[in-house]
Amino acid sequence: MSKEMPDRKGLIIAASLMVLLIILVVVFFSLGTRKSVELATSSLLSNPDVDSSHPHTVKTITLFFLSEKDGLLHSEERDILKSPSISLMGRQLVEELLIGSKNGMICPFPSETKLREFYLTEEGHAYVDFSREIREEHPFGSEADIATVYSCVNSLTHNFSDIKLVSILIDGRESQTLGGHVDLTRPFVFRKDLIAK
Predict the structure, then answer these.
(1) Residue 155 domain-assigned?
(2) What is the reported pLDDT for 74?
């Protein structure tokens, strides 16, 4: 009996210390997580690309997708996050284009295509850098080339008056063409004649 009592007391003390240690670890990590959330929030609010006065405002944009019926580009509205940065909104627009139509129209971009980078100069010249799949997986034909280029060009220039010219890059470099029908070495401007009335 006398031997068992100290063993039980030792076990109770050890168990109590273990519980206390677990509580301390949980409290420590919860404080650390809260601090990292606070830091992330403060850095988000200090980011000039985020409109902190209206953090949930959206901009409705018009995207242009190809119609099988007439071979013209048809409009489709989509919402993106509003930002004082045209470059950031331009990137969002292109990402939405790559997602494709939600109204059953044709997305002229191969499904594997990714947006690598988006640049905008002070003069209003946008450079849209796509992954190599835009060329490697692209369907043949001049209509497909024109639809892909002007789906992007018309969508950007129609929505943002600051964007005057659009150049398309592939895998970080200037490319001659997509499928041999449209010269990609020159910048493009808005073409109203390709849009359905």
Answers:
(1) yes
(2) 97
